[in-house]
Amino acid sequence: MRIIGSIDEAAKIHDWVRYCEVLRGLPRVVVRKDAPRGWKYLSSGSYRSAWLSPSGVVYKVNHRRETYWDQSATEAANLRSAWFQKPPAGCRIVKFGTYSVKGEVIVAMEYVDGELVCALWEAQVNTDPYYARMRRMEDLFKLSDLHGDNAMVDGNGNLVVIDWGC
Ligand SMILES: Nc1ncnc2c1ncn2[C@@H]1O[C@H](COP(=O)(O)OP(=O)(O)O)[C@@H](O)[C@H]1O
Ligand SMILES: [Mg+2]
Known about the structure:
This protein is of the alpha+beta class. The chain has four helices and nine strands, in the order H-E-E-E-H-E-E-E-E-H-H-E-E. Helices cover 30% and strands 25% of the residues. The chain has a five-stranded antiparallel sheet, with helices on both faces. A four-stranded mixed sheet has the order 4-9-8-7. Bound molecules: adenosine-5'-diphosphate and magnesium ion.
């Protein structure tokens, strides 16, 4: 499903991350943080790194091939089944695209201009309403262990889950 992003960008960032691993020949995860020209490294979680493309789209690349849990394949399946459903009040479904590059799933996602729920909590904002919405998203879309690093609040005050691999 390709709502946003492009196969060229997906292949570019996939190869960038993979080339680094091959180059270093390391068996374990070493997250590359330097970005190709026009790209920006955003952040990395336990499983993937997130990159902002020159066209303003976020791409997620699994850290390593032998990972025991393909986070992006799970995320792609979850997003595809959620896209045609109505989200709970105060929540919206992030725009996304799924790409297959050399046998790996690359998820593209709209860049959400907002704050992570955990950052709001750290800034002592009352995040109770956002956690309540996260629980509703978990129930509706059968997500597990949705936490404040995986959901953002956008400029309109909507909760947007940005990691569907959970
Ligand atoms: N669509 C997005 N918009 C803005 N920032 C994002 C987006 N997707 C990911 N990020 C940033 O990248 C981080 C890691 O992405 P995430 O999908 O949670 O990876 P992981 O599966 O490794 O946990 C997030 O915590 C967030 O800071
Ligand atoms: Mg995450």
